[in-house]
Design a protein that fits this description.
188 residues; alpha+beta; 4-stranded antiparallel beta sheet; 41% strand; globular
Length: 188
């Protein structure tokens, strides 16, 4: 499992644990990307998901640091789109498509998080239990390159990146509307 898939997994886990995700996928060419950023999780959850090796594989660019009750995985990995965006069969995975004109369309599936949130919202006891665990935690994913051409996310003022971010506690808001995907066309 590559780091971007780990981020997607942690994003899904973010709805059931105290997890923060802040990752950037930088498009470097027609079939080249790098992923950098960090994921944090409570040490208790780290043990539940199989320990540091599964959360932050060293051979995939991860560096695990544990401080007190928090485990942080700093990541830096690069390769082809297939390598960087690799996923397990049946799991939602980001995609990158070279558009042939010096740009790439990158799509991150976000809708699954909304579906998980709806399950929690429909169970008032679950929502009450999860609210304090989700407060203060966020999920942020960025796409970067030489220039963002278009995005369903927020384009940075200087133009080389776009992001999708939300506070995890918002998933319990009955009015929250997460998009099915975060899509960005970026020039490399």
């Amino acid at each position: 499992m590559r780091m971007i898939q780990a981020a997607a997994l942690v994003g899904a886990m973010a709805l059931s644990a105290c997890v923060d995700v802040d990752m950037t996928a930088t498009i470097e060419g027609a079939d080249q990307a790098s992923v950098s950023g960090h994921m944090t999780v409570q040490q208790q959850m780290l043990e539940m998901i199989g320990g540091g090796a599964s959360f932050c594989p060293e051979d995939e660019g991860g560096t695990l640091t544990i401080e007190g009750e928090t485990a942080r995985c700093d990541v830096m990995t690069s390769g082809t789109f297939a390598e960087v965006f690799e996923s397990e069969p049946g799991e939602p995975s980001p995609t990158a498509e070279d558009l042939g004109d010096g740009t790439v369309r990158v799509t991150f599936p976000i809708g699954e998080m909304g579906a998980q949130g709806a399950e929690m919202r429909n169970d008032p006891q679950m929502a009450a239990m999860m609210r304090p665990m989700l407060e203060g935690h966020s999920f942020t994913i960025r796409v970067a390159g030489a220039e963002v051409v278009s995005s369903t996310g927020e384009i940075s003022e200087d133009g080389p990146s776009a992001s999708f971010s939300f506070d995890l506690v918002e998933i319990l808001n009955p009015d929250v509307e997460l998009p099915e995907s975060f899509e960005t066309v970026v020039r490399y």
